[in-house]
Amino acid sequence: KHIVVIAGDGIGQEVTTVGKQVLDRIAEKFGHEFTYDEALIGHAAIEATGNPLPEETITKSKQSDAILFGAVGHPKYDNDPSAKVRPEQGLLGIRKALGLYANLRPIKLFDELLQASSIKPEFLQGADILFFRELTGDVYFGEKGRKDEGDTAYDQMIYSRYEVERIAVKAFEAAMTRRKKLCSVDKANVLESSRLWREVVQEVAKRYPEVEVEHQFIDAAAMLLIKDPRRFDVVVTGNLFGDILTDEASQIAGSMGMLASASIGDTTGLYEPIHGSAHDITGKGVANPLASVLSAALMLDISFGMKAEAEAVVNAVDQVLKAGFRTRDIADATTPAHLILGTGEMG
Amino acid sequence: KHIVVIAGDGIGQEVTTVGKQVLDRIAEKFGHEFTYDEALIGHAAIEATGNPLPEETITKSKQSDAILFGAVGHPKYDNDPSAKVRPEQGLLGIRKALGLYANLRPIKLFDELLQASSIKPEFLQGADILFFRELTGDVYFGEKGRKDEGDTAYDQMIYSRYEVERIAVKAFEAAMTRRKKLCSVDKANVLESSRLWREVVQEVAKRYPEVEVEHQFIDAAAMLLIKDPRRFDVVVTGNLFGDILTDEASQIAGSMGMLASASIGDTTGLYEPIHGSAHDITGKGVANPLASVLSAALMLDISFGMKAEAEAVVNAVDQVLKAGFRTRDIADATTPAHLILGTGEMG
Ligand SMILES: CC(C)[C@H](C(=O)O)[C@@H](O)C(=O)O
Ligand SMILES: CC(C)[C@H](C(=O)O)[C@@H](O)C(=O)O
């Protein structure tokens, strides 16, 4: 299998280095051959080429069997809202160019981290949610611009039937292999695009009569996710609402540093931690690499169909946590100092 | 003072009845005269007149000194995304008609409810956030519609400089009277409207050099709100992001049933619980009326400048909780059955 590593910005480098090491170890143990290439994106690509998504990155990605992705972003652009070229254009661009319309974000708590969250353990125990976030539509990709001499700015939130249908189908299929519950999240009491979303999900639901379906408004969903995380099984939602809910849901898993995601479409899949570039800790060697490691596990499972290999990785993470090892973000007041590891050691 | 009560749908009736009783008691104790009128909105108004916001409701509202609002919404419309006339149009319409551009949502935990939340008490103790949600712009009011024979639906997310500026000024003014910290929430790494938002907040910030300002992306903010609620003082954000964050923040206060809001602009203010119509418990007499009671307190404070009166109401709520009384939503396993009260008794 040929894998392109796109490390990107901030802690992206540090964590994908570990993700790749884990893939190498799997190849060794299970007798596979993984070859690698690297490609630029984001701020790193802007610095090197002026373009947040060089053509070469797309070509390499298309020719690969899977992509191990780091993160994009840089505070420089965040503080300058008028910047025309931005790192995030690289990430949005590659999602679109590869047609990665379904972003799977599994939220599952490792038992050992039950205490790491600000949420009470009795509300978390057993929580297991699989988010399907639509990834190539919505207000992310609608027409955007300025008018009135720059004094008015707009972004179009937009969905078409086929876009909603294909992600809904993926979510229902997943629900069939799980607890057969699906929650669709929208804001249909206010938004026309959400009303289309709800219509289409209702239609697709008819094809899956065994799945128990509920529709929640995004505001209620953001509340229920904290109030009672265990009520959710599969959650399907649009690009923007999915961005918000999955970051929020990281608190269910104890830390954002533990959460992996898979972006899939009709071809090459992209595997990426849900945490961002985290410039505040970049270069310090303290970033939690487990989200990248678990992203590699998702790659093994989803893109390569290597179930046993994926399981071996997840078990390894479980065992390292059971042995008491922590990175800083998942340590608590009771963690002995010698069990708090840096990025490389955790790898 | 002349007050219009717009009870609306679901539990709106039950809770505003209690809110009004409290206002009456205040008038009696402090020697004020409050006169009342009623007006229709939402599903109730559709049933009676065909219109979710009858002209008469606007006229009465404009002539009043303040509005005590209940809730709007009905499951009938939620299940039928194609309905053309909807209860929520009443609420959005009155916000727009009265120019209620600033929605203040204070999130403060009553000590007695520290255990009622799914969040650990040590993360909540002392949390005190004041949200400023912009209320008459954004994707709520941008152009919306269908194209491609109904197969594509869109809503325009849109902000103009003056809209951002006036809400930012309100938020900074409030921060000056509090802990002098302000967090502005947007998605400036993706959205043009958010970039304008950030630009304008940065400009307004220059006029308030004493206020410590941070900018967070909505996804990070949704996470941080649960991870560390005490880091926030004043939060200012757009209509959609404010809708989501304040519902989520209800978990900080133990229950949505405790949260009041004030919608203000240049004229009459509207006071409203942040909970919705809650049809699942409508008519059962179990709804928590305290959000309506606390909304009445905000009215006394903000619209009538009656500080002592407002404080008396908040103290009364505090005392009733200290005495152990609870409605169902804020009771827990340790609450003795005889202390669990219905809506009227709690009033
Ligand atoms: C970096 C940003 C553009 C991105 C998004 O909003 O999609 C990130 O938050 C994510 O969730 O992958
Ligand atoms: C009922 C609905 C239109 C409303 C909104 O989204 O503004 C409600 O959720 C609120 O927060 O007041």
Automatic annotation (TrEMBL), chains A, B:
SUPFAM superfamilies attached to this UniProt entry: Isocitrate/Isopropylmalate dehydrogenase-like
Binding residues for Mg(2+): 219, 243, 247
Obligatory cofactor(s): Mn(2+); Mg(2+)
Pathway: Amino-acid biosynthesis; L-leucine biosynthesis; L-leucine from 3-methyl-2-oxobutanoate: step 3/4
Positions annotated to bind substrate: 95, 105, 133, 219
E.C. no: 1.1.1.85
Primary location recorded for the protein, binned into one broad class: cytoplasm
Cofactor note: Binds 1 Mg(2+) or Mn(2+) ion per subunit.
Molecular function (Gene Ontology), one example: 3-isopropylmalate dehydrogenase activity
Reactions the enzyme catalyzes: (2R,3S)-3-isopropylmalate + NAD(+) = 4-methyl-2-oxopentanoate + CO2 + NADH
Enzyme class: oxidoreductase
Task performed by this protein: Catalyzes the oxidation of 3-carboxy-2-hydroxy-4-methylpentanoate (3-isopropylmalate) to 3-carboxy-4-methyl-2-oxopentanoate. The product decarboxylates to 4-methyl-2 oxopentanoate.
Record-given protein name: 3-isopropylmalate dehydrogenase
Species the sequence originates in: Larkinella arboricola
Gene name of the record: leuB
